[in-house]
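Entry 14. Structure prediction run on the chain below.
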Amino acid sequence: MVAAVFTACSDDDNYEWANKVADDNPGAYFAASNKASEILTPDEYADHQKFSLTVKRANAKGNLSVPIIVDQADPVFAIPATAEFKDGETETKVEIGCPNLETKKTYKFKVHLADDMTNPYVKTDGSPVFNYDVLVARWVKVVDRARFVWGKSEFANTYSDIYWLEGQNRFRIENWLGSGIDMQFCIVAQDKEDESKYSLSNFDANDRSTWHGAFMPYDHSLMDPSGGSYWYLMNDPNTEDYASWYPDGEDKTGISYVNFWYDITSEDYSSVDMRGSSSSFALYLIPYIYYSDGNQSGYTYLYGYWDSMLDTSSE
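Output returned:
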């Protein structure tokens, strides 16, 4: 229901617990299943002005109130002071209110459970610290049926629509290369005054002349674990689930793994121009394919073609 990027709750590396843990310590924590980052369309947000967080405890004995300490929070959030457990309960819900969110603005909070209610020495499926952010924005189609071409005709051409997350430096290619993955990326844009410099900060959502530069994956990617200058396309990087599929059908050779050269200091090894081109490619990447038959492609080429962006001014 929610168009979101979901990540597990994360620890704060600088957070310190007390050294001693009482024998009856409840071992409370925020469950890893809580959504730590969400992107909501306006319609989705209309049904999402309240949401629940799951809090768990290892010791289910007795009724218990666990203080929730707010480290930082935008004023829009209504965060309860405690999480309440009844005797025998190992988990409970706390309701967070977030009314009156403006579109195209990210809101955040960070909370933790009281130190004397947590146990840092017991492994759990969560953390006593929870960070959350939410953005209300539309995904707007900016390219209709972009054509993607393998440079050495390794596979047939594929076609995908491309969407822009309104107000942000984030784009989404639907079913990229027939992989089933909606690939999100950012543009590391060229500096207007010094063309040798590239930075995410050079991108201006309100100035489409800045919508070109190096291609930077936003999700579904994993940098080479051995330290190489390339990233793998992933179904889920958190579980190390590498993308594999059969672009031309299961009766043909498929892709077991594919990585792409990573260099965001220039447009020599990756390039994307959302404005499109009628005379050249609009996207350029350097992939390395590990085929399902055990062979490898060596570094090859991938091109994306579209003539122009759609007019979204009236949307």
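The helical segments are 42-46.
Filed with the rest of this week's runs.
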